[in-house]
């Protein structure tokens, strides 16, 4: 009697990335390690793992849901096709993948007991994790280049302004110093002026008196 089971796993990729990878022949092959022939057209025939699995696309909802009929080489003519429903939902760590496998021959328990985990889930996790690391490094390098360029641009922009500002400050300091010197000189001159004037007055009368005595001597 056929049976059904449900498995879940989290894949480090977006729902759309997983959807496209599953339905792409080249990527599906790289992702699982077995030769695959896939299609993103409803009704198209598909195969995986070097022909061990064959089936057909029954329903496709981009980025959300993949429904396919599946049968392996272990199925006999008495067995009807089994069916898988792959549901994709975005979560914090990537995508929650829910796999419902129905109408599986009762004697074939290996799919539930490690088959899907070993041949699909684990390889898919490794594939997307490796593909994500180079992308992360590229993004980090791109951000670093932008930051470096931004800093360099800021330095070039600020350079002339700094150079212009420095002479301007120097000129202002020179003018301020000149004003201080001139002010000090004026104060100094102002203090000495009265003394000089008093000295001049005391000298002029003595000189006049001396000249008078000399003149009187000559007249005698």
Can you characterise this structure?
The protein has helices at residues 15-22, 25-32, 111-219; strands spanning 3-11, 45-48, 53-61, 65-72, 82-91, 94-104. The chain is 57% helix and 23% strand. It has a 6-stranded antiparallel β-sheet. It is built from 3 helices and 6 strands; from the N terminus they run βααβββββα.
Please give the CATH architecture of the domain at 3-144. 2-Layer Sandwich
Morphology call: rod-shaped
Portion in beta strands = 15-25%
Q: Structural class from helices and strands?
A: alpha+beta
Mean pLDDT: 81
The helix content, as a percent range, equals 55-70%
SSE string, helix = H, strand = E?
Answer: EHHEEEEEH
Classify the fold: give the CATH topology of the domain at 3-144: Alpha-D-Glucose-1,6-Bisphosphate, Chain A, domain 4
Nutshell version of this structure?
With 220 residues, the protein is of the alpha+beta class. Helices cover 57% and strands 23% of the residues. The protein is built from three helices and six strands, in the order βααβββββα.
């Amino acid at each position: 009697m056929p049976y059904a089971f449900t498995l879940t796993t989290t894949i480090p990729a977006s729902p759309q990335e997983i959807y496209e990878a599953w339905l792409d022949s080249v990527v599906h092959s790289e992702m699982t390690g077995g030769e695959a022939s896939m299609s993103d057209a409803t009704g198209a025939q598909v195969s995986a793992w070097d022909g061990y699995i064959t089936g057909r696309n029954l329903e496709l909802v981009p980025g959300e849901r993949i429904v396919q009929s599946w049968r392996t080489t272990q199925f006999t003519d008495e067995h009807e096709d089994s069916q898988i429903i792959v549901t994709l939902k975005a979560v914090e760590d990537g995508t929650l993948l829910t796999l419902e496998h129905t109408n599986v021959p009762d004697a074939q328990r290996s799919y539930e007991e490690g088959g899907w985990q070993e041949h699909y889930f684990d390889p898919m996790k490794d594939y997307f994790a490796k593909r994500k690391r180079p992308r992360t490094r590229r993004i980090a390098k791109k951000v670093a280049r932008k930051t470096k360029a931004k800093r360099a641009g800021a330095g070039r922009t600020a350079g002339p302004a700094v150079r212009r500002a420095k002479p301007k400050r120097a000129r202002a300091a020179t003018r301020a110093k000149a004003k201080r010197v001139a002010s000090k000189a004026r104060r100094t001159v102002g203090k000495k002026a009265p003394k000089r004037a008093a000295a001049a007055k005391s000298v002029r009368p003595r000189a006049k008196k001396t000249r008078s005595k000399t003149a009187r001597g000559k007249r005698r």
